[in-house]
Amino acid sequence: MVFSSAIFLFAFLPIVLLLYCLAGQRLKNGILLAASLLFYAYGEPKFVFVMLASIVLNYAFAMLIELPGYGSKRWRRDWLLAALACDLGILFVFKYLNFFGHMVGKALHIDLQLPSIALPIGISFFTFQALSYVVDVYRGTTRVQRNPFSLALYISFFPQLIAGPIVRYSTIAEQIDDRKVTPEKLSQGVQRFIAGFCKKVLLANNVALVAEAAFDVHGEKSVALLWVGSLAYTLQIFFDFCGYSDMAIGLGKMFGFEFEENFNYPYMAKSVTDFWHRWHISLSQWFRDYVYFPLGGSRVTPARHIFNLFVVWFLTGLWHGANYTFLAWGMMYFVMQLVEKFLVKPQRLNGATAMGWRVVTLLIVNFGWVLFNSLSIADAKQYIFGMLGLRGLPLWSAAVTGSFREYGVFLLLGVMFSTPITKVCGQRLCLGRAGTAWQKVLLPLGQIAVFAWAVSFVVLGAHNPFIYFNF
After folding, report:
1. Which residues are annotated as catalytic?
2. Which residue in 34, 242, 275, 293 is a FRET match for 266, CA 20 to 30 A apart?
3. CA-to-CA distance for 72 and 420, rounded, in angstroms?
């Protein structure tokens, strides 16, 4: 089940909200836990047992780490290692076994007959949340949760279950047991959900049609079409994932939870490093706190620093999928991090050179998304060569004109909403007496109208993919 589906909008969410509001304080967590398990089991019921196994194992490991009378350093370390082995082992079997099996088989010239294993939705997200909980208990930065149902709610909570943001247990530990839903918070949650829903349905879904036509290996191509397609995918993946994060944050508010932000206008980044401070913030912080810093971070020798960056970016690429394209995508950012840290040093640039590096950053990100969206490195190479005019393609084609005619408005809106322009304009409209009328009357009416427009796309069964469903 996805948030941008009719069954979620018109059945699941209203029923859960109604039951939650009517229930007593003691029953609220139980309702959310049951709803979360139903939400996850809707598409593939058998995979809910994988998530339940992860919950039980991590609850047990955390309790063993904190077992009274057995608190020696070695005891705690051994149970932490056991937790890491189980969590990463489950993730490896479902997500990476076939990929690495084929890699080994190819290297040894052996045809390994590996079983076809379906990928449980959101396994990377709930596994990382479980890992952060156990590691934080081991470090002593958070207290062990002795109520298994509370831990189960943290790991399985449906707003951020299948596509993040990756929520740290320490950030919502108190909220699990003590939170309130005020009219103001509920209103904020609904508005945030509507904003994310519209980003996903109106912007991401429509520009996706342009991207899919350009990335399709069949059909007539031109240099301009490939550039427009790469721009469309750059916008699609942002509004797809950012919209989902907005919906997750909004849903959390509706039930009294406060989740941290996951995006901060990443396409306004001054550098590649700055881009990753703005894009999928929860994932970047996870790798920083649980991989980069434990390895020594930057407070080591230059050679070790380079190794630490390599590990982080290798794992970042691998986290996104079992494909050479994702590994190459991660290595591309590894190389760019080296360039920025040891050669360019963007923080020291100013004026025209700083603006120039912003443009370089956007081009790198754009080419990176081409690699990310390609089925193979060879396909990505062909696409990028075509963009650069190295395949003998015509500069323009009728498909480009058609794309602008049908989807030009959505591309333009996508560019606008990927910058703070609309936010700044909205803040200025809220000033003065006229701003009060805007906030109380015009803005809500406008949001309702745009939401109704977006809902019409869902009702009519319009194109509705979701990129991060695969991770």
Report:
1. 320
2. 293
3. 52
